[in-house]
């Protein structure tokens, strides 16, 4: 299936389903990303499962957001899009950064729909003392636009050490600048208000947490304690950054493939 649009719960979503099989992989992009965030990973995942990717609310060509993004609804969107695409069997849900938080939240709310989670530097909340600053920053993004904050964000989320492929970074930066500032701010406000510890402690699905050694926003020392909250999870520090699916697609795809093969072998 090529990229298409669908209306669910009064919102429009851009989505794409490729591959096939009883089991599936659902890819949830980062804040500021689109389904194209997975372009370099997708061809490396191999066959055997259907693969669903989509623009989340507020991203790409899906319905835009204002105010504060709805965390529960955005997690439920993952399952609604699975249903709309006929994916009834168990899925591995993979998410990057805020997409990692959405993947974990979807799995916690709908554990019967998933047989595993891969969380790439998941942004599972903001420390309480930092929340006022984050909310002020969200207001600035909404007021001044993406270009105004690009020199604050991109050196940390996409550092020079990961820019050896200059063309890849050029395309990423241009796509990132095209974000709707109101939606981007709404997701920042959502992030400032979530607290996932209790639900992660209750999650018992097989889970893999990856953290980039070049990610100052969600470094290994921040992600490893989060991983320990989930029973039976595995943690790996990798040579990547905050936008790992774009920056090091080979590492990300290899980790997903190995995780899926482990699940398939245990089935």
From TrEMBL:
<dbReference type="InterPro" id="IPR022742">
    <property type="entry name" value="Hydrolase_4"/>
</dbReference>
<feature type="domain" description="Serine aminopeptidase S33">
    <location>
        <begin position="25"/>
        <end position="226"/>
    </location>
</feature>
<dbReference type="InterPro" id="IPR050266">
    <property type="entry name" value="AB_hydrolase_sf"/>
</dbReference>
<dbReference type="GO" id="GO:0016020">
    <property type="term" value="C:membrane"/>
</dbReference>
<dbReference type="InterPro" id="IPR029058">
    <property type="entry name" value="AB_hydrolase_fold"/>
</dbReference>
<dbReference type="GO" id="GO:0016787">
    <property type="term" value="F:hydrolase activity"/>
</dbReference>
<protein>
    <submittedName>
        <fullName>3-oxoadipate enol-lactonase</fullName>
    </submittedName>
</protein>
<keyword id="KW-0378">Hydrolase</keyword>
<dbReference type="InterPro" id="IPR000073">
    <property type="entry name" value="AB_hydrolase_1"/>
</dbReference>
<dbReference type="Pfam" id="PF12146">
    <property type="entry name" value="Hydrolase_4"/>
</dbReference>
């Amino acid at each position: 299936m090529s990229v298409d649009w669908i209306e669910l719960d009064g919102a429009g979503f851009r989505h794409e389903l490729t591959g096939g099989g009883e089991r599936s992989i659902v890819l949830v992009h980062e804040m500021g990303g689109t389904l194209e965030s997975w372009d370099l990973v997708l061809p490396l995942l191999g066959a055997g499962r259907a693969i669903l990717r989509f623009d989340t609310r507020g991203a790409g060509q899906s319905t835009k957001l204002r105010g504060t993004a709805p965390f529960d609804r955005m997690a439920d969107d993952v399952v609604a899009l699975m249903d709309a695409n006929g994916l009834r069997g168990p899925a591995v849900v993979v998410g990057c950064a805020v997409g990692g938080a959405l993947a974990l939240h979807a799995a916690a709310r709908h554990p019967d729909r998933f047989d595993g989670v891969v969380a790439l530097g998941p942004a599972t909340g903001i420390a309480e003392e930092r929340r006022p600053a984050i909310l002020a920053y969200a207001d600035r993004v909404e007021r001044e636009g993406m270009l105004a904050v690009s020199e604050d964000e991109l050196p940390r989320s996409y550092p020079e050490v990961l820019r050896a492929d200059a063309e890849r970074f050029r395309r990423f930066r241009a796509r990132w600048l095209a974000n709707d500032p109101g939606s981007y701010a709404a997701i920042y406000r959502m992030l400032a208000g979530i607290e996932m510890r209790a639900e992660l402690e209750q999650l018992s699905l097989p889970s893999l947490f990856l953290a980039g050694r070049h990610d100052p926003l969600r470094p290994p020392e921040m992600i490893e304690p989060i991983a320990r909250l989930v029973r039976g999870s595995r943690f790996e520090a990798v040579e990547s950054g905050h936008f790992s699916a774009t920056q090091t697609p080979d590492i990300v795809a290899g980790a997903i493939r190995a995780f899926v093969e482990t699940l398939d072998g245990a089935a």
